[in-house]
Amino acid sequence: MARKTPSLKQKSINLDFYGLSVLINFKTNVKSMRLRVGKDAKITLSMPFYSTQKMALSFLEMHRIWLENTYKKALLNLPKDDEIKFLGQAYKIKFDENFKEPFFDGEIVFTPNLKSLERFKKTRAKELFLELVSHFQPFINKPIKRIVIRNSKTRWGSCNHKKGYINLSLRLIEKPLSAVRYVVLHELTHLLYPHHQKSFYDFIEKIMPDYRKQEQILKA
């Protein structure tokens, strides 16, 4: 007699594996075991629905060294002290799976996981960058065809003056607003002056007399 397919498509259990919390998902649409350590350092093992806990433990034991090393790396990449910087201010992060999307109450950022937090930062950064570009564009009077946000760690921004493209680093959202304004103006000015000669900085100084102070803030 054929076994009936259960109406439940997924079941989950939490398992302690040598001090590591592993979420095991038994799924009907999974044919092989998949072990994953997320950017938020959460460990997930996906298994075929009719697998057993004993099979899960055996699989984890086989991959124990990889799991422990990968988990340690993920911990190192977590925000330090569970804080996030936003426009020069530090705010506490609270990871809470009861929140489907990040929520900011003015003091604490609640987020289900690190991936959602990164999306939240990028959305806020995009809104701010577009607002600042709109503010400075009348001074430039040049078409801006594309604004790209990158997770760059080596530069705050760049400009392709021939194509009218502006690239801005996601990390800018951590800096004070005055410094963010400077970077946006700096890159837009390259549409007029594709160099760093005196005329370039003379133009910036007319719009932002304290631009040198903003450069120091970015270096801090």
TrEMBL record:
InterPro entries cross-referenced by the UniProt entry: UTP_pyrophosphatase-like, YgjP-like_metallopeptidase
**Domain YgjP-like metallopeptidase: from-to ranges:** 31-219
Pfam family for this entry, one: YgjP-like
Full protein name: YgjP-like metallopeptidase domain-containing protein
